């Protein structure tokens, strides 16, 4: 016996290999992240806003030039050139370079404000007393918000808004400059806070997207690895069942000539060695595949009639040469071989002398390649086949289901023979969802196949979170900004009360605008309702009409037209909620109302254009921000899909290689020494045949009772079989073994050690059951024992 098995061939010397080691590469962060995309987008948005406000401030700059024109030009160039440089560096510059540009921009802006306070702290001419430098306070604040921590961002925003108010106070030519400076500083704080809040919200959202994407990537990679391990394991199991177990069974039963056993053993060893590397030929000619199938049929069932059909030329042999993937040919050969072996062993039933006619029909079409194995034997009821019988479930149906574009069907009725159809049908739905198109010979009825988890590449995965939908205006900061909106515009309205004008109109306008702003404060977890958009625009329009009815012509007060800025801010928020078209439609109506008011009050239409155009830059900057955010989302979605696909592919490849190596180590340790000895033709002794059957039984345990293929159970099963006990070990846990597996293994081993004769069936139950296993003992008085999670045994009541 030792000459047959070798030192490593004992079935009890190998523990099941746990190949569920996590794939290390899934922890890597993707190359393209939402944070990186958003940072680039915001840098470009800051540059665009700087360009817009730089052009708008140019008339004021030329009118307010400093005595030193070179210094003035340098200040203006620094104010707008640094943000533009930031945008240009968005794609090629490192994070350190961009941070340096932002720091220089922030310091230069504060320096310029300080210069206005210290050197030019004198009133400017009436009508031109708004310094150009305070017209773009939001640009450096948003730039800082792209990179800095929130506390530093808000501190910088408050500082620059306060300095802007002081600059306005020192340069104002109005009668009450302190009040003007206060109002200007508060309005600047409100306007800048809106864009800073959007920027910080987008940063938080991008961080959540990155975290969710990373978790999704890890989950997808682990899932792909789990599926790959399962598919690889099932493929190896099918080979073991078809070749290794069949060879050992032939040798152990002693009914096959030694030369035939030797040939099967040599072929099996060649197949095991071939699994160490991919097939050398990616495709095979159909004629080669047909020849291989014919040779296989002659080896297993010499009496079978082999025929090749071509429906394009009925009654003739196939004349159209096509190719079939080598993986498909390998799977079909394995399934056909198993179908023929089942027919040879079982089709005659209990009467070996009963004549059985077998035929193997091959069909090659533009839709693929199909093989049908038929016999007119005793047949069977597929529904009554025990789940532990692997021939049909794994070697035929399971093998073809795992093959891409593969399919298999079995039809059998007691007394009416059996038909097995296996096919490779590309450009079709997967086999587990769409039946094979009927082809002659006879039609078949599907049999339920074992549940196999689909490959992850067929399931789309969406980006976990959308950035634009994360701009939630129900946060405490959003409520604070709304309160500032209400307070600032209330202050501006009070400052600009016109004696003798109907105060009710101004109060009604203020309330309508405030209500319009409040309607926008809702969570962004679904598309913004059109009715609410209409309400916001209507209220803003009513507020504008009432204010134009209240304002006299030629009102030169600094904030007389405060409602234009307030409505523009509402439109900016509306654009940020994804309603850009509605926002610009509202702005167009506002422009028409402003021009109409100017003409109605005897002024030039250009007066209205000048009033409303001052706020176009604000809405344009907000719109560009949202448009860029949407493009960034689309790009990120594509990049995320690609990254997830790469993660799946990497995980699948690594897991399949690891699982294949683990399974081959197990099979080689259990069976290779015996196969090597069987490859040398010689007559086996009774002891050698018994050892072959023991090894064959151990291999079946490794396939059917995977989670219990551990040393305590392996040794106990082997000892029980040597005592003459028939032992069957089954695992129905579906790759979810019990948590206390060691305890279960010891309990099962203890029970097996007490059985001296008869039959024992150990079954691990599916997960989430109250009990983890059952032990059916048919020795003397039959009994059924259940095993609890803690390993306790009890008989059912």
Automatic annotation (TrEMBL):
<feature type="transmembrane region" description="Helical">
    <location>
        <begin position="177"/>
        <end position="201"/>
    </location>
</feature>
<feature type="transmembrane region" description="Helical">
    <location>
        <begin position="503"/>
        <end position="521"/>
    </location>
</feature>
<feature type="transmembrane region" description="Helical">
    <location>
        <begin position="100"/>
        <end position="118"/>
    </location>
</feature>
<keyword id="KW-1133">Transmembrane helix</keyword>
<keyword id="KW-0812">Transmembrane</keyword>
<feature type="transmembrane region" description="Helical">
    <location>
        <begin position="559"/>
        <end position="576"/>
    </location>
</feature>
<protein>
    <recommendedName>
        <fullName>Histidine kinase/HSP90-like ATPase domain-containing protein</fullName>
    </recommendedName>
</protein>
<feature type="transmembrane region" description="Helical">
    <location>
        <begin position="477"/>
        <end position="497"/>
    </location>
</feature>
<feature type="transmembrane region" description="Helical">
    <location>
        <begin position="533"/>
        <end position="553"/>
    </location>
</feature>
<dbReference type="InterPro" id="IPR036890">
    <property type="entry name" value="HATPase_C_sf"/>
</dbReference>
<keyword id="KW-0472">Membrane</keyword>
<feature type="transmembrane region" description="Helical">
    <location>
        <begin position="130"/>
        <end position="147"/>
    </location>
</feature>
<feature type="region of interest" description="Disordered">
    <location>
        <begin position="429"/>
        <end position="461"/>
    </location>
</feature>
<dbReference type="InterPro" id="IPR003594">
    <property type="entry name" value="HATPase_dom"/>
</dbReference>
<feature type="transmembrane region" description="Helical">
    <location>
        <begin position="152"/>
        <end position="171"/>
    </location>
</feature>
<feature type="transmembrane region" description="Helical">
    <location>
        <begin position="38"/>
        <end position="58"/>
    </location>
</feature>
<feature type="transmembrane region" description="Helical">
    <location>
        <begin position="583"/>
        <end position="599"/>
    </location>
</feature>
<feature type="transmembrane region" description="Helical">
    <location>
        <begin position="611"/>
        <end position="630"/>
    </location>
</feature>
<dbReference type="Pfam" id="PF13581">
    <property type="entry name" value="HATPase_c_2"/>
</dbReference>
<feature type="transmembrane region" description="Helical">
    <location>
        <begin position="70"/>
        <end position="88"/>
    </location>
</feature>
<feature type="domain" description="Histidine kinase/HSP90-like ATPase">
    <location>
        <begin position="321"/>
        <end position="390"/>
    </location>
</feature>
<feature type="compositionally biased region" description="Low complexity">
    <location>
        <begin position="445"/>
        <end position="461"/>
    </location>
</feature>
């Amino acid at each position: 016996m030792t000459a047959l098995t070798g030192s490593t061939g004992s079935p009890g010397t190998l523990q099941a290999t746990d190949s569920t080691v996590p794939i290390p590469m899934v922890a890597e962060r993707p190359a393209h992240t939402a944070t990186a995309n958003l940072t680039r987008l915001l840098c470009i948005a800051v540059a665009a806003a700087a360009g817009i406000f730089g052009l708008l401030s140019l008339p004021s700059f030329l009118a307010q030039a400093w005595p030193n024109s070179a210094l003035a030009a340098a200040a203006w160039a620094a104010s707008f050139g640094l943000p533009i440089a930031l945008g240009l560096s968005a794609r090629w510059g490192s994070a350190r370079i961009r941070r340096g540009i932002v720091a220089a921009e922030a310091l230069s802006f504060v320096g310029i404000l300080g210069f206005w306070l210290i050197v030019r702290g004198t009133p400017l001419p009436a009508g031109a007393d708004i310094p150009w430098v305070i017209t773009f306070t939001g640009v450096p604040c948003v730039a800082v918000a792209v990179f800095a921590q929130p506390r530093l961002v808000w501190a910088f925003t408050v500082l620059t808004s306060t300095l802007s108010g002081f600059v306005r106070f020192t340069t104002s030519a109005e009668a009450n400059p302190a009040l003007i400076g206060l109002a200007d500083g508060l309005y600047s704080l409100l306007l800048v806070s809106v864009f800073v809040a959007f920027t910080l919200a987008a940063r938080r959202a991008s961080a959540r997207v990155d975290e969710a994407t990373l978790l999704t990537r890890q989950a997808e990679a682990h899932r792909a690895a789990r599926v790959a391990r399962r598919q690889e394991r099932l493929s190896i199991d099918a080979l073991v069942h078809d070749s290794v177990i069949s060879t050992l069974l032939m040798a152990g039963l002693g009914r096959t000539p030694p030369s035939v056993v030797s040939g099967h053993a040599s072929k099996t060893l060649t197949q095991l060695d071939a699994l160490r590397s991919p097939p050398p030929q990616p495709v095979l000619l159909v004629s080669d595949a047909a020849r291989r199938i014919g040779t296989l049929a002659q080896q297993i069932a010499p009496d079978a009639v082999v025929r090749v059909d071509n429906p394009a030329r009925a009654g003739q042999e196939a004349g159209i040469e096509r190719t079939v993937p080598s993986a498909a040919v390998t799977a079909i050969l394995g399934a056909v071989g198993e179908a023929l072996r089942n027919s040879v062993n079982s089709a005659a039933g209990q009467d070996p002398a009963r004549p059985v006619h077998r035929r193997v029909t091959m069909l090659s079409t533009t839709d693929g390649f199909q093989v049908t194995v038929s016999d007119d034997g005793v047949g069977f009821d597929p529904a009554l086949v025990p789940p532990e019988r692997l021939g049909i479930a794994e070697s035929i149906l399971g093998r073809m289901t795992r093959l891409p574009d593969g399919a298999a069907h079995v039809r059998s009725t007691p007394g009416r023979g059996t038909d097995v159809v296996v096919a490779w049908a590309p450009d079709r739905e997967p086999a587990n969802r769409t039946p094979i198109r009927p082809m002659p010979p006879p039609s078949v009825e599907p049999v339920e196949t074992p549940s196999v988890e689909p490959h992850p590449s067929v399931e789309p995965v969406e980006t976990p979170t959308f950035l634009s939908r994360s701009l939630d205006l129900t946060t405490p900061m959003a409520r604070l900004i709304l309160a500032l909106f209400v307070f600032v515009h209330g202050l501006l309205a009070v400052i600009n009360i016109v004696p003798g004008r109907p105060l009710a109109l101004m109060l009604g306008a203020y309330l309508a605008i405030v209500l319009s702003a409040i309607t926008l404060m809702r969570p962004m977890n679904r598309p913004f309702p059109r009715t609410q958009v209409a309400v916001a625009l209507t209220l803003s329009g009513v507020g504008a009409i009432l204010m134009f009815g209240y304002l006299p012509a030629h009102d030169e007060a600094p904030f007389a037209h405060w409602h234009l800025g307030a409505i523009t801010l509402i439109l900016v928020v509306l654009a940020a909620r994804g309603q850009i078209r509605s926002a610009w439609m509202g702005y167009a109506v506002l422009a028409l109302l402003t021009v109409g008011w100017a003409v109605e009050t005897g002024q030039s239409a250009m007066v209205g254009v000048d009033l409303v155009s001052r706020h176009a830059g604000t809405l344009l900057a907000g719109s560009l921000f949202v448009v860029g955010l949407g493009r960034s989302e689309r790009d990120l979605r594509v990049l995320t899909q690609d990254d997830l696909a790469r993660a799946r592919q990497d995980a699948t490849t690594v897991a399949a290689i690891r699982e294949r190596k683990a399974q081959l180590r197990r099979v080689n340790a259990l069976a290779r020494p015996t196969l090597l000895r069987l490859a040398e033709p010689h007559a086996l002794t009774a002891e050698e045949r018994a050892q072959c059957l023991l090894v064959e039984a151990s291999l079946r345990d490794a396939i059917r009772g995977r989670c219990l293929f551990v040393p305590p159970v392996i040794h106990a099963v082997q000892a029980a079989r040597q005592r003459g006990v028939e032992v069957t070990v089954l695992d129905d846990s579906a790759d979810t073994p019990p948590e206390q597996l060691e305890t279960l293994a010891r309990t099962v081993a203890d029970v097996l050690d007490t059985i001296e004769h008869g039959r024992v069936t150990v079954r691990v139950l599916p997960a989430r059951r109250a009990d983890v296993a059952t032990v059916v003992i048919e020795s003397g008085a039959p009994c059924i024992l259940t095993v609890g999670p803690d390993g306790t045994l009890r008989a059912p009541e």
